[in-house]
Known about the structure:
Domain Metallo-beta-lactamase: 20-220
Keywords: Exonuclease, Hydrolase, Metal-binding, Nuclease, RNA-binding, Zinc
Low-confidence stretches: none
Number of helices: 16
Strand content: 15-25%
Radius of gyration: 28 Å
Distance between the termini: 71 Å
Structural class: alpha/beta
Protein name: Ribonuclease J
CATH class of the largest domain: Alpha Beta
Number of domains: 3
InterPro entries: Metallo-B-lactamas, RibonucZ/Hydroxyglut_hydro, RMMBL, RNase_J_2, RNase_J_b_CASP, RNase_J_C
GO molecular function, one term: exonuclease activity
Amino acid sequence: MTMSQDELVFLPLGGVGEIGMNAALYGFGPEKRRKWIMVDCGMGFAGEEAMPGIDLMFPDLSFIEERKADLLGIFITHAHEDHIGAISELWPRLKVPVYATRFAKSLLETRRLGEPGAPKVDLREIKPGRRVTLGPFEVDFVPVSHSIPESNAVAIRTAHGLVLHTGDWKLDATPILGDVTEESAFRALGDEGILALVCDSTNVVREGRSPSEAEVAATLSRLIAEAPHRVAVTTFASNVARIRAVAEAAKASGREVIAVGRAMDRVIDVARECGFLDGLPDFRSADSYGYLPREKVVALLTGSQGEPRAALARVSRKDHPAINLASGDRVIFSSRAIPGNEREVGAIINDLINQGVEVVTDRTELVHVSGHPRRDEMAEMYAWTRPQAAIPVHGEALHLDEHARFARAQGVQNVVKARNGSLIRLAPGKAEVIDHVKAGRLFKDGNVLIDDRDRAIPERRKLAQAGLVSVAIAIDETGEVLGEPAIDIIGLPNRGRGGQPLLDTVVEIVGRTLSGLSKGKRRDSEAVEKAVDRAIRSAVNEAWGKKPACHVQVVEV
């Protein structure tokens, strides 16, 4: 195998052109004998309107499934769901070692792999500074600041050179807990020579620098100390620094922390195990809530994104079995709504305000900061690393396009615009897109996975828009209709625009259509079904203005 035959390639299968579902492949070798590693394997959340009945989405990994004998391992940059959430679902299709830090490994085991029927994933702990060699790859974890402990960039070395995959990161000199993004470490990588910087694009449209977690902690401390009654704080359960800041503020003001929500409990257990909550008293359970004076309570609640089954939503609807709020209590949203969740979050805020609860958000107070870099931070990263090529990832089209312009302004001559499925040759030669491969989405539908070609989702959208008419007709071998057709309408209004019941309209048009068909025609069940279907859709459209889905079944007797 000569150097001229070997290629180093990058292939994103998720997270490029979208937020979430991060999954990136790096390959080395001749095209037919290439070895691969994967960085992250995350999930996304589906919107109920766009994907009725679907909660979770995963990247389609069929490209690497077909080459799984050449996949050497999966490296997890950090423990956010958009980077680890697909492991339990998709790992059985790959069955390779998964390398993660202690916190990410423990959270995976607790959150996803502790569920009934979960696969026994080959999880291997990795520590920054300890290089892992897999085939032609040498992989190092490089600590970075982010909104979850033990976040890392991934330095990937091959015979063709070094690639730096940043993962999610920011610059924060006072992160409360966890690592800082060390200038010296990234300057050293830049001095070594970086073929390509594969970099987070999330906040590239925002000027300046992201504030520090320490500033948020100071604000939370003040808001908790000043509150006359109960305080409830909702944040991402994975943000252990924020959980610690709330706990320290509660301790300083003589309050007790009550953790509410399974996701919060799981993260707190892992954080204590890893030492991130050392020096703080144990948190109380929800059962203690009603026994404490109002001025002694700080409740940590799940549900910052408006999830309808999470603790905060249930509290806002007054149907939580243990937690309630009253006029004069204070709720702090120490989070920002992820795009697509604004309506659900807004509904909860409105419900709380209508109950007399004071709601504090980042619109008026510094109660949340992003875990991603703004432009000044990104400029520093580019100055430290000085890559030959830049590949914007982790963002929607707007972010990727703006990042490409930004990278050129930092002096990077070769900026490669990628999307999911773009096969990019990094070396030898100039980095460029050389092919496009299959990349798509898988949807968790109940207990099964379906792909984006499955008819279920578009059919549900249609049903949601225009309902269903169901008709069953019995016809004997002579073409005689036996009895009355069984007819039901689902999701249609009771009456059309003329005031006539729509069910009567359907009954009338079915009878008229059958009467208009000869006995010979009625012996052809397929022809009857098509004729009745067309007639119903036309008649209902005239009466209502919409064409429903129709299910017509002819039973031959």
